[in-house]
């Protein structure tokens, strides 16, 4: 694994093409792998790819998709932030964070989250959250490095698709 000082340069940019095949593939990989951890009906990779909408219109709110690219323009990672106003000021969610397996351990998640944090500060977001699993230590470490912390609140969820199964 290369150290950060010898790794090729990475640039972080806003997604320009909502149909970018490399970014969609990274998000499809994440969706496919995460199914193992949740009680939702499973989809095949073909179903995931066929139902993935253009990346600019998935979440309600301001969608900011940050992409880490290598020198040749290849997508190495994605950080998708959504900013919205529930009536009490701007809030945000880091909706997705994924780094390609062969690009991990190079600080790319840290760079993506730093860019996301800069965006949220510029937009004067008053509350930001991220959902992840305790059993994902790499994600937990990246989010903690970016300033996210566990809260004393309990989050309860309802999964209507599971109730209908």
Secondary structure layout plus pairing:
Blueprint lengths: L10 E4 L6 H14 L10 H7 L10 E8 L5 E10 L6 E9 L8 H15 L4 E4 L6 H9 L14 H5 L1
Parallel strand pairs: 4-5
Antiparallel strand pairs: 1-2, 2-3, 3-4
Summarize the structure.
This protein is α+β, with helices and mostly antiparallel strands.
Explain what the structure shows.
This protein starts with 10 loop residues before the first strand and ends with a helix. The protein contains five helices and five strands. It is α+β, with helices and mostly antiparallel strands and 165 residues long. It has helices spanning 21-34, 45-51, 108-122, 137-145, 160-164; strands at 11-14, 62-69, 75-84, 91-99, 127-130. The protein has a single domain, classed as Gcn5-related N-acetyltransferase (GNAT) (Aminopeptidase, 3-Layer(aba) Sandwich). The chain has a five-stranded mixed sheet, sandwiched between helices. It is globular and about 40 Å long.
The geometry reads as: globular
Total of helices: 5
Query: What is the CATH topology descriptor?
Result: Aminopeptidase
Strand order of the largest sheet: 1-2-3-4-5
Task: Name the descriptors.
165 residues; alpha+beta; Aminopeptidase; globular
């Amino acid at each position: 694994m290369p150290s950060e000082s010898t790794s090729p340069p990475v640039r972080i940019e806003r997604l320009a093409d909502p149909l970018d095949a490399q970014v969609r593939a990274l998000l499809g990989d994440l969706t496919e792998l995460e199914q193992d951890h949740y009680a939702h009906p499973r989809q095949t990779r073909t179903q995931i790819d066929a139902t993935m909408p253009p990346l600019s219109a998935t979440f309600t709110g301001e969608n900011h998709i940050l992409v880490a690219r290598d020198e040749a323009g290849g997508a190495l990672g994605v950080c998708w932030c959504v900013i919205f106003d529930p009536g009490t000021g701007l809030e945000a969610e880091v909706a997705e964070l994924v780094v390609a397996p062969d690009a991990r351990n190079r600080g790319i998640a840290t760079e993506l989250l730093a860019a996301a944090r800069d965006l949220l500060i510029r937009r004067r977001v008053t509350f930001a959250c991220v959902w992840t699993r305790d059993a994902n230590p790499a994600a937990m470490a990246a989010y903690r490095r970016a300033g996210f912390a566990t809260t004393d609140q309990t989050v309860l969820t309802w999964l209507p698709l599971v109730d209908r199964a």
